[in-house]
């Protein structure tokens, strides 16, 4: 979902500018995004990685996953940390080996260089097709999406899917007659325009049923199990399309994210639910939560589970009850840590990237 959403966010305003013929604005937007993308992604990730290194040096990090003969000392920890940084900052290697020891400090951050690579390809695609007709750009993106899935590049397929959703949304709003600067339902004035114009008639019962159906189907596909099912009543009938490969689940997750996002950008009721304060807050800290949750879980998650299982026991349903109780305790701690990280690090990196862009460009 993050990859599909990233493709959408990175493309939406540029596509809106392209569709109005304002190529200068589109180029300026793409240039700004490309310049700031590395700082936006890697800045907070490097700080989160440094925190992991410091907790390891302090002796707080559990040794699970380290080689049996590994000796914790400054030289060993620093050598492994430098190897980790080299892997994290390697944006040229498209294959990811999560079993490699270099990812031990923050293994879930393998997605950061992937995000950066896919972002750059999306920028190149939009620049290459900005002078094309809409149907040409749409056809090229669709072909690229299918070819990416064909060669098992689900990561890039997810970004292209987000670009396609942005293009669909923009064309739909143009048909309705919306002439906002960015062409987005999130723009100020869109709700008032919908209420005052006849455009709301387009949201017929059939259309809304279709969007809610896409949303529900997306949620269902998002529940595709980690281990390929062989006897499940539904998933076993589609698992063969990915040869029952474990990594094949990401193809279904890409489809799920695309359907969910497509429904969200076309259904006002779903947008209204997500525009309430709590979802907006979670959206603000989402990247920080992703960066920091692994460290919090490794530091205290196991200890919390140990205590909760001591209280509930581990026989039968007691195991699940203990896990649920531990989750109730751990969840607010992760959110609190993410909130602190967002305020202190993430927002600062965003502001710094804008300052760097201002210093390095001529202002045009």
Helix and strand arrangement:
Elements: H1 2-19, H2 23-57, H3 74-88, H4 111-129, H5 134-150, H6 154-176, H7 190-196, H8 205-222, H9 236-239, H10 249-266, H11 268-274, H12 277-312, H13 317-360
Order of helices and strands: HHHHHHHHHHHHH
Extended strand count? 0
Poorly predicted regions are 178-186
Largest beta-sheet details? none
Q: Estimate the global geometry from the Cα principal axes.
A: globular
Helical coverage, percent range:
over 70%
Quaternary state, please? single chain
Describe this structure in words.
The protein is 72% helix and 0% strand. The model is unreliable at 178-186 (pLDDT under 50). It is globular, with a radius of gyration of 23 Å. The protein has 13 helices and no strands. By secondary structure, it is mainly α. The longest helix has 44 residues, at 317-360. Helix 2 packs across helix 13 (317-360), helix 4 packs across helix 6 and helix 6 (154-176) packs parallel to helix 10 (249-266).
């Amino acid at each position: 979902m993050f990859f599909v959403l990233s493709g959408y966010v990175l493309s939406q305003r540029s596509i809106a500018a392209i569709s109005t013929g304002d190529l200068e604005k589109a180029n300026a937007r793409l240039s700004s995004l490309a310049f700031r993308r590395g700082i936006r992604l890697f800045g907070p990730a490097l700080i989160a990685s440094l925190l992991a290194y410091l907790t390891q040096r302090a002796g707080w990090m559990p040794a699970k996953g380290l080689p049996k003969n590994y000796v914790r000392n400054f030289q060993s920890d620093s050598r492994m940390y430098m190897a980790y940084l080299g892997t994290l900052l390697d944006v040229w290697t498209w294959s990811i080996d999560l079993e490699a020891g270099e990812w031990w400090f923050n293994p879930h951050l393998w997605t950061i260089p992937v995000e950066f690579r896919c972002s750059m390809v999306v920028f190149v695609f939009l620049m290459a097709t900005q002078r094309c007709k809409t149907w040409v750009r749409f056809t090229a993106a669709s072909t690229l999406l299918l070819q990416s899935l064909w060669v098992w590049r689900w990561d890039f397929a997810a970004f292209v899917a987000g670009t396609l959703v942005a293009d669909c949304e923009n064309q739909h709003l143009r048909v309705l007659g919306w002439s906002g600067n960015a062409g987005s339902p999130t723009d100020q004035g869109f709700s008032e325009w919908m209420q005052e114009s006849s455009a709301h008639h387009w949201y017929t019962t059939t259309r809304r049923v279709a969007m809610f159906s896409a949303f529900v189907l997306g949620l269902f596909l998002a529940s595709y199990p980690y281990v390929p099912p062989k006897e499940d009543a539904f998933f076993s009938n589609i698992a063969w399309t990915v040869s029952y490969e474990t990594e094949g689940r990401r193809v279904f997750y890409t489809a799920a994210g695309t359907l969910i996002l497509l429904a969200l950008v076309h259904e006002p009721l779903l947008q209204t639910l997500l525009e309430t304060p709590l979802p907006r807050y979670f959206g603000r800290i989402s990247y920080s939560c992703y960066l920091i949750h692994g460290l919090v879980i490794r530091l205290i998650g196991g200890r919390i589970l140990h205590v909760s299982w001591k209280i509930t026991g581990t026989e039968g349903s007691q195991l699940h009850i203990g896990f649920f109780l531990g989750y109730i305790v751990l969840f607010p701690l992760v959110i609190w840590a993410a909130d602190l990280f967002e305020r202190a690090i993430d927002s600062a990196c965003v502001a710094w990237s804008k300052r760097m862009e201002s210093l390095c460009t001529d202002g045009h």
